[in-house]
Amino acid sequence: MELNSKVLSQLRDKYGDAFYLLDSAQFKANYVELKEAFSSLYSNFNIAYSYKTNYIPKLCKIVNELDGYAEVVSEMEAELALRIGVCPKKVIWNGPIKNPLVLKKILLQGGSVNIDSLEECFYIKKIAEQFPDHTINVGIRCNFDVRNGELSRFGLDIDSNDFKKALDFIKMADNLKMISLQCHFANRQIEFWPARAKSMIDLIDRTGIVPERIDLGGGLFGKMEDSLREQLSIDIPDYAAYAKAAATLFSKHFCNMENKPELLIEPGTALVGDCMKFVGTIKTIKKVRGKTIATVLGSQKNISMTGVNPPMKIYAMGEEQREYENADFAGFTCIESDMLYKEYTGKFAIGDMVVISNCGSYSLVMKPPFILPNFPVIDISQGQTEVIKQAETFDDIFHTYNI
Questions:
Q1: pLDDT band (50, 70, 90) for residue 306
Q2: What are the start-end ranges of the E strands in 167-231?
């Protein structure tokens, strides 16, 4: 659906002065494009979608329909995967803390867990001993230096005794199956991806273990508008560049193997970043000591972008517009740092609608019930409107409190 003042006015009349717009068709197109980029270089490839980045059920269902994995990091996300119909065998549980009771449920149904600490070995051992006739699928989250100048807190140091103990633990139990080796690094720069791939290949050669799955984790840039790209001090790779940096190494290493291990990545932002917009309404305009400040029904917490000016477009829908120079767009919260956009020059007025793009990554899931409940999510990708998430209400926030 093409946005214009008429469309936005109709949406505002129906859903209020602030809302998210979802493009689920774009999400599906991104998924297909990313998978084809890697599969063209390494055929046994699949995607494990990072639920934590944006767990809108409709998006998770699209991943499931396309035979992708659910990459979850909590019992809440694991439950969501099961409720939308994901086969337990397609659930991969990462994360530093795992609820033992829910993990037991997932493992006994065929799901898999990547061990992040020796403590997890202890309760996985109990599950294996309680159910000797069940095959328990486990992997190890691997931590190593990719020379990015940062120390990742996730996984087991592959040169440590803890890593050796975890390997021995899996080998000694008859019904534990070493199904995967996984790593994850937050840096999205492409120069660190070959180091990920090479380190995982070296680890496989060193241990002599070729698991069913080799999982390189997430950490990819997604598509973004030029105005955002230009503010970043690094090149933004496309999907094909990431595939060339990583999948090529696996294709060469396993070229003579008939049953190649499945290569996985765990994208979130790369798939969903450009699939949501946030729409708010300018409520006030004032000048404070020479600085023009426009206050919007919307918050930095709704867009989850800091340190940059997001892609923003203003639609004339209110009073007569005036030209302003170096105006700041502030959010509705009572926090000084709640700024949506700084130093904007252009025309706007009270009642105009502000549309901010590239809001699909972490925005919705990290918005707390701070000052106001969250706004509705509307899918407009098919030319019609579909309510994906209702606007939150007072009762949604306070029904767990004793009043």
A1: confident
A2: 176-182, 213-215
How far CA 105 is from CA of 70, 141, 201, 290, in Å, comes to 16, 21, 32, 61
> Please, which residues have CB within 8 angstroms of residue 402's CB and are 6 or more apart in sequence?
none
Question: Distance between alpha carbon 88 and the CA centroid of its chain, in Å?
Answer: 20
Cβ-based neighbour number of residue 283 at 10 Å: 16
Q: How far apart, in whole angstroms, are the C-alpha atoms of residue 392 and residue 385?
A: 18
Q: Whole-angstrom Cα distance, residue 4 to residue 265? A: 37
Residues near 217 by beta carbon (within 8 Å), at least 6 away in sequence: 182, 183, 184, 185, 196, 265, 266
Task: Name the pLDDT band for 129 (thresholds 50, 70, 90).
Answer: very high
CA 165, 168, 169, 170 torsion-angle sign: positive
Q: Are strands 276-288 and 19-22 parallel, antiparallel or unpaired?
A: antiparallel
136-143/176-182 β-pairing: parallel
Res. 382: pLDDT tops 90? no
Residue pointed to by tokens 């030029």: 226
**Cα-flanking dihedrals φ and ψ of residue 28, to 5°?**
-65, -40
What pLDDT was estimated at residue 150? 87
Question: Where are the extended beta strands (E) located within 309-396?
Answer: 312-315, 322-330, 339-348, 353-356, 377-379, 386-389
Q: According to the model, what pLDDT value does residue 2 have? A: 85
CA distance 367 to 397: 13
State residue 245 phi and psi, 5-degree precision: -70, -30
Contacts of 286 (CB under 8 A, 6+ apart): 292, 293, 295
Q: How confident is the model at residue 26 (pLDDT cuts 50, 70, 90)?
A: very high
With 90 as the cut, is the pLDDT of residue 318 above it?
Answer: no
Beta bridge mates, 215: 182, 264
* Rounded CA separation 102/241 (Å): 38
142 or 259, which is more confident = 142
Would you call 176 helix, strand, or coil by DSSP?
strand
| One-letter identity of residue 168 | D
